Every structure is written in structure tokens, then in C-alpha cells.
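Lecture 7 notes: from sequence to structure.

We start with a single chain of 209 residues. Read the sequence below before looking at the structure.
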Amino acid sequence: MDAQPNENVITPAVVAQSLSFEGYMNLVREAVAQEKTTGAEQSAFLAQLTKDNLAIMERTYQTPLQPELVTLVQELPQAQLWLVLTEGWCGDAAVHVPVLAALADQSDKVELRTILRTEQPAVMDAYLTNGGKSIPKLIALDAETLTPLGSWGPRPQVLQEYVLDLKKQELPMLEFIKKALGYSEADNGHALQAELRELLPQWTRAARA
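Now the structure, written as C-alpha cells:
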């Protein structure tokens, strides 16, 4: 995971342009209805991926949440804003963002908001992964000051390693996407939630610093 930026690019203006998860889902549904995707980059291929992802998103929002993780978000000492860089065509976002949203829904200490990668290039450039604009990217912030507390993404480490190995096989794009997505869906949110159990205490300590 790349280092946090020295200067906070997430301003109140950026947050004002963000959408709730429900608003993001409606944006994706509207894009699918128009045979499009979200954001500025448009193609028939991305539109088809977005259509496929919509069903995945509606399913993964129902992913069982680990009780100990729910307790962690409910007992946070300070309110956090979870700002997520995403797009409708992204399979990793379809698998993981709904789980993050469902978890945030369990706590009045966490608000999840979404921004589009293509519409917030400065934020994306500040939170690269190995130099790449990988999404989804969750940025945890102090809800009052917007001070960054930490970040997560684009996928759990175990899934990241699988994808990196998959890339070495130089598969056709559709086959690569199908395999990567299938592996992530089979995990059913376990790896993500395990990592969040480790990260939340770190973010809490950062909020107190």
C-alpha cells in the first residue's frame, strides 16, 4: 500500500460532491438503464461490466457481517467518514463496496460516501496502489476535521496476491475478469472483514493522535 499523501486533498468541497451508497447504487442503476457506465470513461465493454456488476452489488450488500467487526464500528470513540473511490464497471468495487456500506450502516459512528475515480483525479492520484489507479479505495477520515486516518484497497491482500499471479498468465481480459471476480465472490467478504478488524484499531489510534 502506498504512503499517505502529505497534503490532504479531501476538502469539504470534495465531500459535498460525494454520494451516499444508496445514491451511488441509483447512479449505477440509471447508467445500466441507459446502457452506460458511471463517470467520464464510456464504452460498450464498460457498460456491459456495469450491468453484470449491478446484480453482484445487490447480492454482496447481503454478505454476513462478522459480529466482532460490527461491535468495533459501533464502539468507535470518534465519528469517521469513509470516502470510497469507485466506478460502476469495477468488479472489485462490486464485491467489496457493498460490504463496506452494510458495515457502515451498523454504526452511527461511521458514514460511508462514494466518489467516482474519473471525477476526482486529485484524490485518486493521492491514493495510488503501487503507482496505479486501482479501485475501490477506502479512505478513512476524521468526520469532523477530514484528517486522513488510513486507507484500504483495492482488495484484501490474499485476493491481491491471487490477482497478481493471474496477471502473469496473460489471459484474455474477459477470462481474467471472470476468474478474479469468481475468486473474490467465493471469499464472501471474509478477507475484507479480517483486514478491517486489524485496521479499525489503527484508525482509532490515529484519530487520537
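The domain at 12-208 is CATH 3.40.30.10 (Glutaredoxin). Keep this in mind for problem set 3.
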